[in-house]
Structures are given as C-alpha cells and as structure tokens.
Amino acid sequence: MLEPEPPATAVSLPSETPPPPSSDEDFFSSASAASTSSASSPLTPIPSPQPHPQIPISWPQDGTLTLAWVTNLMLAFDWGSKNLPPAELPSVLPVEAFDRLVLTASKMLHKEPNCVRIDSGSGLGPESRVVVVGDVHGQLHDVMFLLKDAGFPSDDRFFVFNGDYVDRGAWGLETFLLLLAWKVFMPSRVFLLRGNHESKYCTSVYGFEKEVLAKYTDRGKHVYRKCLGCFEGLPLASIIGDKVYTAHGGIFRSIPVTPAKRAKGKKNRKIVLNPEVSALSLGSLEELLKARRSVLDPPWEGANLIPGDVLWSDPSMKPGLSPNKDRGIGLLWGPDCTEEFLKTLNLKLIIRSHEGPDAREKRPGLGGMDVGYTIDHVVPSGKLITVFSAPDYPQFQATEDRYRNKGAYIILEPPNFDVPVFRSFEAVTPRPKVNPYYDFEDVIDSDEELDLASMAT
Ligand SMILES: [Mn+2]
Questions:
Q1: Residue limits of the Serine/threonine specific protein phosphatases domain (predicted)?
Q2: pLDDT tens for residues 93-152?
Q3: Distance 85 CA to ligand 1 centre (A)
Q4: Which of 88, 203, 350, 411 makes an SS bond possible with 208, Cβ 3.0 to 4.6 Å?
C-alpha cells in the first residue's frame, strides 16, 4: 500500500529539487532549526563530513556502553531508515546485539520502583534540567530531532519519557531501542515510563508487532517477545523534584483491601469497570508503589487496576472520578481530583500524555493538540498539563485528514523544577517513504477503545 502523502521523500524527489542531505547530515547538521520553525532545511545541505555508521553493530566486549556507541546506534538507525529496506535491519543491529541491549535494559527497568523519584538524592541539582517527553509513536526522526534540540542526556540533563514509544509510526523498534540504549548508557539520567501502547494488545493492533516481524523476519517472533518482556518492566510514573508527577495517562484509584469477587462467568466477558462507582476515590502513593506492573496487558477488571488507570486515564472538565467508558479502561478525572491529588502529595504539576490531536478532536471542553501541549486544569495547588511529542501525527493518514500538529516537550528548570517551559517543534521533513504496518483506514481512529473481543482471546 502506498502512503498517500505528497511531501518529497528521500527516495523520490521532484527533478528540480536538490538532493536531500545524506542521512547523517540530516540528523547531525541540518535538523537543528529553531524549535518553533521548520524542523529541517533540506534545500541547503551543510556539507560537513559526518562519519558513516559502523555496522553491523556489536555489543561492547566489556558490556559497557559509551557515548560513541550510542551515537553510532542513532546514526546507524537513521542511515538504515533511509538506505535499507526494513528487512535489512538485522544487518545494522544483528539479533545478538539486540538481545544484549534488551536484556541489559530489562534488568535495569525491572529493578526500578513503579514510581521513580528524581530528586537531590538521585543527582538533581542547581545546574540540572529535566526534559519531559510525551508520546513519540515510532517517529524516529522526530525523536532524534527532539534529543538534539533539547540537548542529549548528560549529567545535568535528565529525561523522563512518558511512554508510547511504539505503534502507528514506522520506526517503533528503532525508536524504542534507541531510548533503551540511552537508558543503559545513563541509567540515572534517562527514565522510560510505560505507555498504554507498551502492551501486547496495542502492539498487535497498531503496527508494532507487524513492524518487528517485517524487520527481523525469521527471528521476528523472538524479537517481539523480548520487547514485550521489556515493556512489562517499564515503571509507571515519576516524581520530579518532589513537585511534579508524570505518567502516561494520569492518576489512579484507591483499591479496596478486599475487592469483591465478581465476574465468575468466564464466557460472558463484559466489562465490570466498578459497580461501586460512588465508591471511587483517589489512590495513594503507597498503593501505586505496591501495584503489580509486570503484566502484558494492564487488566480493566479485578484487583490490579492501578496500572490500567495510570496508563489509560484521561482528564475531564467534569468534576469527580468516573470510569473511562470511551476507552473501556482507566478513569476520567475532574479538576477537583487534580486539586486533591496535588494537595495530598504536596505537588505543583501533573504532566501526562496519551492524547494526540485525533483524540482531542473528540473531547469538547479540552484544548486541541496543535502545539503539542495543553494546560487542562488550573487549580489552587497547581496545574495539569498534557504533552504530546509526535508532530504531524499520525504519520500515516490520508492527506486531507492530517492534523499537522506540532509536537512539544517540557523543560523543568532549577531551583524548584515546578515551572514548565514548553518547546514546540515541527516534524522533520522529508522523512523516508515507507509503508505502514497497520491498516490506518480500517483501524479505529484513535486508541481510545479497548477491543474486548480481541483481548478475550
Ligand atoms: Mn497513549
């Protein structure tokens, strides 16, 4: 299937257009435009000589990643995305190196608590900045632009990614592995939280599973399985500088100590979101820390509801806490709940992600995602913010349906790390022309609904 989008691409340009910069120049030189203007200048390639990536990539002999190794991995993925068919990815990253990277990262991630804390005890100081990133959805070139634009992770630059690394975009695997490499290289500076798309259910519907099978062919099932195992290890939330809570979806409910037994009939799997709706109340940090996050798909019923809440919930302008009926999992929460959460935990900000321009189109009362972020609730104790970091999302969409949204990321600065600085950016163009890994015309328009029939099987 051809991608129905008109911009010139790396492989077929109008004859009067000068050739695009070579892959490495595109990434390291020309993708440096100001964050609010066009994200690249393909007509004026800067002829600075960049090294070609060293491929195939092998795991370092002593098992220690270096900046040079991570840089070469980025260069190699970028180059490969522009010069090789998808099935040639193993010639860039052989499965042996993939295995070592994912195994090393998984071990680190599994050890992290459900809610990671970034504070003075973990190196946050008067020179530090914390960059918070929202959904990236396999948009490799935009992620690399973001990293360069914000400045790569360093002793003074922390990164918290709010999840949804894969699905929709065509380079979910490269994007996820790139972020894993940064995690392994700087484990105390890079934090990767789980998104709802880091699950078996979402990746089987929205492209990532097919992408992995196309790229690693006969080893594809193995690679996909290892990725799912790694997803299970991802922590759920972060607290930055004791003042900012971040998570993919948002806040979460309190779970009664002895949940009522229900839904005994196994055949008729209808959703029992919570029959005691009036009893819904906000969960505590202790409950979040105790939740069992190692699940392929966060459950929407039963006693282990906190992971599903954290990954799938959405804010609302209507007061109160209620089941998120549109999504079939998670919660909707109002400004009063934002206030209660912030006040109880002595926080100033909630930064969540999870809603792109398509989702926001259907949420009256909440802002559109045109510039990559919205301020959803303003309450006495602070604010609730949504940040979405995938510009021109989704990448595969009929031209007339495109949102042409900017992406954004947030910088938190000293001394208190509680005042958000927003940076919006446009999509990198041109991007390599590829086929989607899901049927974007047939698959439901947003990720709002859990298809329970497919989950039950
Ligand atoms: Mn999401």
A1: 193-198
A2: 999 999 999 999 999 999 999 999 999 999 999 999 999 999 999 999 999 999 999 999
A3: 28
A4: 203
Residue 52 among the catalytic residues: no
- Annotated catalytic residue: which of 110, 137, 141, 197? 197
**Residue 303: pLDDT above 60?**
yes
Ligand 1 centre to CA of 270 (Å) is 23
Tokens of 243: 């003042």
Would you call 127 exposed, middle or buried from its count of C-beta atoms within 10 A (0-12, 13-18, 19+)?
exposed
Instruction: Convert the pLDDT of each residue in 27-62 to its tens digit.
Output: 443 333 334 434 444 455 455 556 799 999 999 999
Ligand 1 centroid from CA 396, angstroms: 17
Record the tokens describing residue 129, joined without a space: 């900045």
**Ligand 1 center–CA 165 separation, angstroms:** 9
The CA-based angle 38-39-45, given to 5 degrees, is 100
Contacts (Cβ under 8 Å, ≥6 apart) of 228: 200, 203, 296
- Find the 197 Cα to ligand 1 centroid distance in Å: 6
**Among the listed residues 237, 188, 164, 172, the one whose alpha carbon sits nearest the alpha carbon of residue 388:** 164
Domain extent listing, the chain: 65-254+279-452
Instruction: Using a CB cutoff of 5 Å, list residues around ligand 1, an ion.
Output: 164, 196, 354
